[in-house]
Amino acid sequence: MLIEHNREKLIEAVKFFALHTKKLGKTKLYKLLYFLDFTHFRDTGKPVTGLEYFAWPMGPVPVELQNEFPNPSADWDGNCTFKKVRTQAGEMLAVNATSTFDGTYFSKRELRIMRELANEFKDSTAEQMVERTHLENLPWHQIYEVEKRKQAPIPYDMSLRKQDADLMNESISDRQEMLTILRT
Asked: Domain segments of the chain: what residues?
């Protein structure tokens, strides 16, 4: 289970996207959460929700959340509903907020990224969101199409450009070396 603070952030992020986008089903939601987490990780080295995403045929899927939808935890009560609805394209799991969004769990950067994503994808369909996650050079494409590791986890560090990843790894090595020196 997600640690409590990440869980609160996840629930609030889902509410935010339910309140600020149209036609929010689970596929569109997964892509919005993926973009939120991977964009924030690229900028700061930390995801927002702490979800782990896997390379499924329709794009990145947070399997832990996917597994929860058939029987949502009690902490969704009063926050969101998940209801199957019929659409022209078939059946979808519609996500709706049942309370107001609480932004106090988020940094200014996290809120900015959520607003930008909601604005960019407000009217997008699930199919359009899937197409966006399948673009070449994005992490899902690398894992699923290039490396042929279907259903495999998508590492967050794939959101970094090569030079950024090298700098981050160098910084981690420097910190570990410093800790070793201080311990001796």
From this structure: 4-158
